[in-house]
């Protein structure tokens, strides 16, 4: 069998690319890696985390973004429970609403973190709970 090596990127629709770039940068620490300009207008971006371990693409698609509002299509992995607690403290310091650290089905997570379009981004530990 031919192996896959993980995700290249995940793409989310947004209603306002610049507003979303600001949110994902300020809240999650993503930086712009690539800009997609069409007819002189910014229509999308590829964002990368500080460790360059993952890529998140944002594409201007207001109707699709509205349709995803309230849904949680992405859970970003956090190595440990302590690291997740650090994320919760960071979010608190930024005044960003979230669930706090809660127990999930296989680890711990921070939920209720919504981007400017109401799309929920979760932070989930890669470290699993002992059963």
UniProtKB/TrEMBL annotation:
All copies of domain VOC, residue ranges: 6-126
Q: Which PROSITE patterns match?
A: VOC
GO terms (molecular function) for this protein are: dioxygenase activity
SUPFAM superfamilies in UniProt: Glyoxalase/Bleomycin resistance protein/Dihydroxybiphenyl dioxygenase
Cite the Pfam families for this sequence.
Glyoxalase
Q: Mind listing the UniProt keywords for this protein, alphabetically? A: Dioxygenase, Oxidoreductase
InterPro entries attached here?
Answer: Glyas_Bleomycin-R_OHBP_Dase, Glyas_Fos-R_dOase_dom, VOC_core
- This chain belongs to the protein called Catechol 2,3-dioxygenase
């Amino acid at each position: 069998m031919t192996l896959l090596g993980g995700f290249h990127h995940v793409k989310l629709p947004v209603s306002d690319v610049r507003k979303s770039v600001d949110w994902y940068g300020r809240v999650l620490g993503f930086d712009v890696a690539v800009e997609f300009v069409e007819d002189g207008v910014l229509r999308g971006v590829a964002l990368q985390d500080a460790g360059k371990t993952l890529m998140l693409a944002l594409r201007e698609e207001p109707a699709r973004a509205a349709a995803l509002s309230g849904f949680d299509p992405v859970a970003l992995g956090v190595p440990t429970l302590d690291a997740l607690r650090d994320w919760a403290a960071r979010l608190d310091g930024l005044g960003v609403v979230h669930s706090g650290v809660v127990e999930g089905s296989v680890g711990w997570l921070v939920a209720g973190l919504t981007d400017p379009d109401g799309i929920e981004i979760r932070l989930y530990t890669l470290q699993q709970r002992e059963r």
